[in-house]
Amino acid sequence: MSNSKHRKQRKRSAGSSKTSKVPQAPLLFSNFGKKPLDLVEAGYSKDHKFSISTCSTTGAKLTSRAVKRGQLSTASVAAQYKYKDATINVIVDSKSPISTTLTLSRKFLPSLNISASLKLPKYDYSTISTTLTLSRKFLPSLNTSASLKLPKYDSSKLQAQYFHKYAALATSFSLHHTPKIQLSASVGTSSLAFGIQTKYEIASRQFREIDAGFSMTKPNYDASITMGNKGDFLRASYIHYFDHKKKVAAAAVISHRFSKKENALTVGGSWIVDNITTVKARVDDRGKIMMLLQYGIKSKSCLTIASEFDTKSLNKIPGIGLAFSLVL
């Protein structure tokens, strides 16, 4: 009797797990080829960065940051305070003495989130940038957001995203003196999707950009081919994972520009040695080799070392970038 009860319970649990699964929508067009590009581009920098952060139990956080980019050095101090649904950010740097951001967020319903962020303006003494952002989730598959920036309202825009089992749609409307509407749509499944993206100018009544492509996503690889700039630019990207935990991966990105008859190729790989150590490397067709080592010292603290070596300029000293982030 006990065995039969256990079998029935297993069947019920298995049936409930199957019905509880929600089908995934296809990727948005903006995410086509994102994983290979992140592997060969993200994190490689010859800048020297240092940041230290301290947090308190009351919700206050203080971050000091210094960056050296070539011969130019900048420094900034950021203070953040969180109280319930409110977040206040104050930034003081060497270029803009004071920049203050006030963020308010409230969750009215499980499916309704509203947030607003306000950046105080800068005149000759401080940065002027006011940003108001409102986001709302009407349905589990529909996300909408609106951002208003003053006094430079050119970058203000309205956004909406809709996800379905076999389709994903995204639209963006810019509040510019020559307004533009960006539309993107992809159809298919979570493993194979075809997408298109375009920009339409209301003033001239013309489509300025038309991009198209497809993406194939599997547990052990991700491949995509996209065509942009009205067919002048073609890019193919591929990433392959050699284990189910995705600790070892290799990626390749190749592009061709028909008008200039130019080709570009970048090949890279990554290895997650353990929970705190990651190694990455890449090489491109120009003969530049870049390597990256990321080492986690403790929770949310890490040391990143990146180096660049030009095989076509052997007399040139290799560039070395260093980034250290410490959270106390």
TrEMBL record:
GO cellular component: mitochondrial outer membrane
Feature: compositional bias, Basic residues: 1-13
Single GO term (MF): voltage-gated monoatomic anion channel activity
Gene3D superfamilies attached to this UniProt entry: Porin (2.40.160.10)
Disordered, as annotated region: 1-22
Domain of life, source organism: Eukaryota
InterPro entries the UniProt entry points to: Porin_dom_sf, Porin_Euk, Porin_Euk/Tom40
Family stated for the protein in its record: Belongs to the eukaryotic mitochondrial porin (TC 1.B.8.1) family.
Protein name as catalogued: Uncharacterized protein
